[in-house]
Amino acid sequence: MTLIQGCALFVAAMLAGALNSIAGGGSFISFPTLLFTGVPTKLANATNTVALWPASLAGAVAYRKDLDTKNRLQLWVFLGVSLAGGLLGALLLLNISSKTFAHLVPYLLLVATLIFTFGGSIAARIRAAREGSSDAALEAKGQGPAPLTLIVSALMQFVTAIYGGFFGGGIGIIMLATLSILGMENIHGMNALKNILATCINGIAVVAFVIARTVLWPQALLMIVGGVVGGYASGYFARRLDPKLVRRIVVIFAWCLTAYFFAFRG
Question: Distance between CA atoms of 76 and 142, rounded to whole angstroms?
């Protein structure tokens, strides 16, 4: 790693940490930067997961007071499927060839970009469609989610966790859609649970990647520091920037990046 590459990774991690705090989508900055500095795709994915995990953990801690712990069954089910799915996704990544993963990267970026672009509106429509339903009426009376709703949501979370352990782009938005199906409406409570589940998914993946020795530690440690600095600094800029505007900029960048990978690296 050269000095220029180190500076690029540090700045990319700062931007990723700031974006994740303001509007999400930080991986669209940090993961490609690792690739552009010459890191092989599988190592870049594992290193990126490790580099951004501390920021995810910090977000979970920051939102801990907003977590609704009344429905403990729902919480433990989601924690369990998140850990299992995250581990399965990480093992899938570790057991495919680097060449295969390199061919998958453009398609994974496309999936992440589609999720980031349209996931929010889909989650809103799901939430609106549930209003007035019989399941929603039961949940409004404090009876918790209906069994079928909980099962479907848990299966969705399991698939999301597999994807998260394997690649991870856009999992936060997918989880918000899943929580909408459960009838959650308090955005702070949803973010609290989402952050905890994301920490579990990425955390178990980090353990697998560390054990498998697929992490480039000089790059990872440098990016961890950059991500923390960016996340902290975003507290200053968050009050001055419109998250919707930032999100639109990230969407444009993500589509350009996806097009580039299909054209030149697919």
Answer: 18
Q: Is the pTM of this model over 0.90?
A: no
Burial class (CB in 10 A: 0-12, 13-18, 19+), 144: middle
For residue 47, give both structure tokens. 């290193």
Q: Nearest to residue 86, comparing CAs of 178, 208, 3?
A: 208
* pLDDT tens column, 155-197: 988 998 999 999 877 777 778 777 777 767 676 777 788 888 9
The span from the CA of 247 to the CA of 230, in Å, is: 17
The one-character DSSP state at 116 is H
The H helix count followed by the E strand count for the chain is: 11, 0
Taking the C-alpha atoms of residue 66 and residue 185, their distance in angstroms, rounded to an integer, is 13
Which residue type, as a one-letter code, is found at position 193?
L
Q: In the structure encoding, which two tokens stand for residue 37, read together? A: 């500095």
C-alpha 239: how far from chain center: 23
Measured CA to CA, the distance from residue 54 to residue 58 in angstroms comes to 6
What φ, ψ does residue 69 adopt, rounded to 5°?
A: -105, 15
Q: List the end-to-end C-alpha distance of the chain, in Å, as a whole number.
A: 25
* CA separation for the pair 195, 177 (Å, rounded): 14
DSSP code string of 31-78: HHHHHHTT--HHHHHHHHHHHHHHHHHHHHHHTGGG---S-HHHHHHH
Helices 72-94, 187-211: crossing angle, 10 deg rounding: 40
